[in-house]
Design brief:
Oligomer: single chain
Distance between the termini: 8 Å
Strand content: 25-35%
Structural class: alpha+beta
Shape: globular
Radius of gyration: 13 Å
Largest sheet: 6 strands, antiparallel
Mean pLDDT: 96
CATH topology: OB fold (Dihydrolipoamide Acetyltransferase, E2P)
Helix content: 10-25%
Length: about 130
């Protein structure tokens, strides 16, 4: 799997892609493949505050329920409503159309503590 070079990654298998002060957050290809068929996604609503390293929702698959941890601190400005009716899109396009939330970052320096694509691929053993 090719992991986008412009994303930053967490050890909990989330990614963030930043444009200005907005970070788009999702789960990695590795995460969705470990979970199996995804059947439900629980995400915060716009206006919710999220904190780096803390859970902000969950992904449920036929195998398990897994917490989603925010890679950054800030305010949710948008949630991907498409996933409410079609959570399986996370299995099809986890690094693209199946993003989870967009967050207005409160501290961009937090990105420095995240892994780049090659570090993440080494971390997961690919």
């Amino acid at each position: 799997m090719n992991y986008p070079e412009n994303f930053r990654y967490t050890k909990e298998h989330e990614w963030v892609s930043v444009n200005g002060d907005i970070g788009t957050v999702g789960i990695t290809f590795h995460a969705q493949s470990e979970l199996g068929d995804i059947v439900y996604v629980d995400m915060p609503t716009p206006g919710a505050a999220v904190t780096a390293g803390e859970s902000f929702g969950s992904v449920e698959s036929v195998k398990a329920v897994s917490e989603i941890y925010s890679p950054v601190t800030g305010e949710v400005v948008e949630a991907n409503d498409t996933l409410k009716d079609a959570p399986e899109k996370l299995n099809d396009d986890p690094h693209g159309e199946a993003w989870l939330v967009k967050i207005r970052l409160s501290d961009k320096s937090q990105l420095d503590g995240l892994m780049d694509a090659s570090e993440y691929q080494s971390y997961i053993g690919e």
